[in-house]
Amino acid sequence: MPTITRTEDLARFCEAAKCAPYVTVDTEFLRERTYWSKLCLIQLAVPPASTGKQPGGDAVLVDPMAEGLSLEPLYDLFRHTGTVKVFHAARQDLEIFFHDAQLFPTPLFDTQVAAMVCGFGEQVGYETLVRKIAKADLDKSSRFTDWSRRPLSDAQAAYALADVTHLRVIYEYLAAELVKTGRQAWLAEEIAVLEDPETYITRPEEAWLKVRTRTNSPRFLAILRELARFRESYAQDRDIPRSRVYKDDAMIELASTKPTSEADLGRSRLLLREARKGEIASGILAAVKAGTDSKDLPVPRQDEPGRPGNAALSDLLRVLLKAKADAAGVAPKLIASASELDAIATGQRDVPALQGWRAEVFGRDALRLAGGEIALSAQGGAVKVVPAR
User: Fold this and answer.
1) Which stretches of the chain are assigned E, i.e. beta strand?
2) N or C: at which end does the chain have fewer Cβ atoms within 10 angstroms?
3) How is the beta sheet containing 108-110 ordered, strand by strand?
4) What phi, psi does 370 have (nearest 5°)?
C-alpha cells in the first residue's frame, strides 16, 4: 500500500490534489493515554480521474510519525479554496488540525452532517453510508488497531484507505442530493459550527458546565466549578486524560463532602489512590477551599434535571419535532436536542432550534405551540398541526 513518509512526496501529492475538485480525508489517532489526540495516520484520496503523476496514484496513506516529515504541504492544501475537503464525522479530525496547526480545512464538507440533512438518520455511521450509497461492505477486522505501531500490515493499510476511497462515492451522491433539495445552506450552517474555534477550545473555568449533576445548590456548584477548573488545567498541562486526575463521580463526591485535609481525601470512596496525596491532593483541597470561600456563586443551569418547567409542553414539543423531522426528511437530533426542547418549554428563546434553517423547519411552530396558537391532532397514523381553538 502506498505510504508517504517524505515531505517532498507529500508536497507532490498535495500539489496535484489542488487540481482536483475535492479530496477525501480521514485520520487515525490515539487518545486513551493523553489529553490531546496523538495523530498516527492520515488518509487522502482524490477522484480517480485526478491521479496525474503524484506518488501512490489517487489514494495514499501519510505517516505523520515518520522522522523528518512535515505536514505543511497538507496544511497548504487545506488552505487551498479550489478543492473541497471531504470528511466523515469531522469534529475529532478538525480538533487535531486546529490544535496542531491552528487551521481548518476550507472549504469543508462533512458527509455525516450532510447525510442527516438528507434524511439518513441521526449520527449515521460511515459503514451504513458505504453499504447504502457505495453498495460495498467494509472489512472491520482492523477496527481496534493500535495505529501508533509500525509497520502497518497490508490489512490495516487497506482498512485505513477504505475510509477515504468509498467516501468519494458518498460525497458525490450527497452533494448532488443537497443541490436537488436546495439544502446547501442548511449544511453551511452546520459546517460553520465545525469551523468555529470555540467548538474546540475547552477553558478550565468553563469545564464544570459539562459535568452532569442533580444538585443545584449554588455553593455546591461553586466547589464543582473550582474542582473542574483544577482538573482541566492539570490534565492539559501534563497531556493526560481527565479521568487520570479524577473522574466525574469522584468530583461530584468531593463537591458534596468538602474535604479539608488529606485524611478526608483518604476516606473518599471514588478518588483514585494517586489523587489522595501530592500535587493532585493539594489541588483538590485548594479548589474546595476556593469554592467554599467564593462570593461569585454560579447560577443553576436551566437544563438541569429537576429544574422547574412545563413537562407537558416538553412532551408536546417532542411530538411536534418528530412530525416536522419526518415531513422534512431530516434527523430529529439535527434539529433539536432534548435539552433544547426542555429549554423552550421553560421559556428560553436563545437556543439553536429556534434559529436559522431550524426555525423554518421546526422553531416557528414550536414557538406557536408554546404560545397556544396551534395544537397537535392525530389523524390516522400521522400528527398534524391545527389552529388552537
Assistant:
1) 3-4, 22-30, 38-45, 59-62, 84-87, 108-110, 374-379, 382-387
2) C
3) 3-4, 59-62, 38-45, 22-30, 84-87, 108-110
4) -65, -30
pTM for this model (two decimals): 0.88
Measured between alpha carbons, how far is 164 from 172 in angstroms, rounded to an integer? 13
Over its length of 389 residues, how does the chain's per-residue pLDDT go in tens digits? 679 999 999 999 999 999 999 999 999 999 989 999 999 999 999 998 765 544 457 999 999 999 999 999 999 999 999 999 999 999 999 999 999 999 999 999 999 999 999 989 887 899 999 999 999 998 877 878 899 999 999 999 999 999 999 999 999 999 999 999 999 999 999 999 999 999 999 999 999 999 988 888 999 999 999 999 999 999 999 999 999 999 999 999 999 999 999 999 999 999 999 999 999 999 999 999 999 999 999 987 655 444 445 888 999 999 999 999 999 999 898 999 998 999 999 899 999 999 999 999 999 999 999 999 999 988 877 888 888 77
Per-residue cell: 229 = 477548573
136, 173 Cβ separation under 8 angstroms: no
Side chain identity, residue 196:
D
The residues facing 45 across adjacent strands are 24, 59
